[in-house]
Amino acid sequence: MRGVILDAKTLGSDIDLQPITKLPGSWTVYEKTETKKVAERISNAEIILTNKVVLNASDIRLAKKLKFISVLATGTDHIELKEASRKNIIVSNVRGWCTSSVTQHTLALLLSLTNKVGQYSVDISEGAWQKSDTFAYLKHPIEEISGKKFGVIGYGELGKSVSRIIEVLGAEILISERKNKPARPGRTSFEETLASSDFLSLHCPLTKENFHMIDKNVLTKMQNHALLINTARGGLINSADLVEALSTGQIGGAGLDVLETEPPGNSEPLLTKDIPNLIISPHIAWSALESRQRLIQQTRENIQNFINGTPVRLVEG
Length: 317
Prior knowledge:
Blueprint: E1 2-5, H1 18-21, E2 26-29, H2 38-42, E3 47-50, H3 57-62, E4 68-71, H4 81-86, E5 90-92, H5 99-114, H6 117-125, E6 149-153, H7 157-168, E7 172-175, H8 190-196, E8 199-202, H9 216-219, E9 227-230, H10 239-248, E10 253-256, E11 278-280, H11 289-307
Parallel strand pairs: 1-2, 1-3, 3-4, 4-5, 6-7, 6-8, 8-9, 9-10, 10-11
């Protein structure tokens, strides 16, 4: 088997690829692959591994020997699945590998906002605590999670995992129904979730239907003190509308691990200086070392099972 890894650098330089590259066959590893080079690099490949490199219909058609694609992530929106299916190419992904890491990072963003960690750190570095006339420097109000309502949009594995942790901290969980859908038993309507949540956390995949789901209309329906957390996909939020909501005090704050374009350009509205109560991390919620090691192990299993004729973690076209 001839295999190719198109964007190994996205997994980090501290990750050992040998569990994959020591599998039977020959492997070519590319750190990154530009769009214009994809067709050339996969032309003789039987197995392709990609994290974020797009495989469009044209690329897949030109890869005459291609039999198997294993995505180095859970999301497969960058793979033309219909064309892969038409050519009888098997596609697998990895699942549940970063649940602990994303859950932990979601909590980190939330606690950074509720406990004003960043603001107090800056104050101390500027000497504010040192000049205080009392033992505690109480400039930024801290709020408890206990007794509050935590809305979850997207109740798959990640949404459930985050909810379990938040529930331990004493919050009531509101599981949002899909927008414009009647609430099923155990769910709260989308509108009620917006209106009632003190904290709102996004854990849904990005689709054509929910692109820019969090826009000006939605943000105006949230409480003025509400905190918005997004560790899912940047395209779920209209950046300009969120900037306006934060700048005018329409909502209380936001913690984001994802932006619509990554890496972002200088024109990204959310990178404007001095937006109040905004924390952004560079798409790292998934990236705990243990999570990335599980990704490698699942990918090895995907390839080995494909070779053995018993493919697993199949993605349908």
